[in-house]
Amino acid sequence: MSSNSLQNKKIVISGGASGIGWATTKICVAKGASVYLCDIDNSALNKIKKHPQYNKKIFAANVDASKESAVIKFFKDIKKKFKYLDGLINNVGIAGPTGSIEKLNSRDWVRTLYVNVISHFYFTKQTIPLMKKSKYGSIINISSGAGIMGFPLRSSYAASKWAVVGLTKTLAMELGKYKIRVNAVCPGTIKGDRMERVIRDKAKFTKISPKIIEDDFISMSSMKTWVAEEDIGNMCAFLISNEANKVSGQVIAVDGNTERMD
Ligand code: NAD
What we know:
Elements: E1 10-14, H1 19-30, E2 34-39, H2 42-48, E3 58-62, H3 68-81, E4 87-90, H4 106-134, E5 137-142, H5 155-175, E6 180-187, H6 193-206, H7 210-219, H8 229-240, E7 251-254
Parallel strand pairs: 1-2, 1-4, 2-3, 4-5, 5-6, 6-7
Helix pairs in contact: 1-8, 3-4, 4-5
The structure holds nicotinamide-adenine-dinucleotide.
Residues 15, 17-21, 38-41, 44, 64-66, 91-94, 115, 142, 144, 187, 189-190, 192-195 line the site of nicotinamide-adenine-dinucleotide (NAD).
């Protein structure tokens, strides 16, 4: 992929101030795109203000992606900067509760679906008119290995990530005639803060040491490796670029080939 493969592309990323979303923002901007991201974490939003492209090619707002009124307002602000959109990355996601289903709190379970699935409906609904204008668009829904396999003790997360795959397949069929492509990217286990939290919660529930759980996570992929946030960012950049102009309706794992999730 060339270094300016996203020249003049306008991209929106939900949950973009840290983790995969922020790594993806930096990759897309380095390839020529402008990115408008949102997040609810003020300290992460403040940190990105130091980036040299802040308020030039990177714009950011505090928006709760799971609240439709906030998303509608966010898109009003986006339209003041971008007249059209080429890319939407529905990245926002929370881990949801860990535990056997009879012990899980209903509120936490439902909240996972609001953040991980229903937010994507809100963002996609606002984005489609802006992509139809340019007769070009690439929507990327971030799913997970848990959207391809079962994931014991993480029922709400797995349900949300399979829902993302169903949404992707359906939207690709609905939007193909407008030259809008829709794909799901399924990251493997990423080295970073989020997995540290997941490992800590699993260790607490199973009473197994975090080190054993960490080694077990790595052993689940054929390549016996963690995945880097940038691996996901590079895949997203490719999917938004013209080089992927016939790739739609696909569920693409970037995970060193996950063989099991247990
Ligand atoms: P992360 O927790 O590092 O980043 C997610 C960001 O979303 C955070 O900045 C957080 O503040 C923000 N956020 C949370 N709730 C929000 C809300 N309601 N509105 C707006 N922003 C909100 O997570 P990540 O690892 O970068 O994950 C990104 C995506 O990748 C998620 O959909 C996740 O499920 C998926 N994923 C991650 C992994 C992994 O190992 N990290 C593996 C598979 C899939």
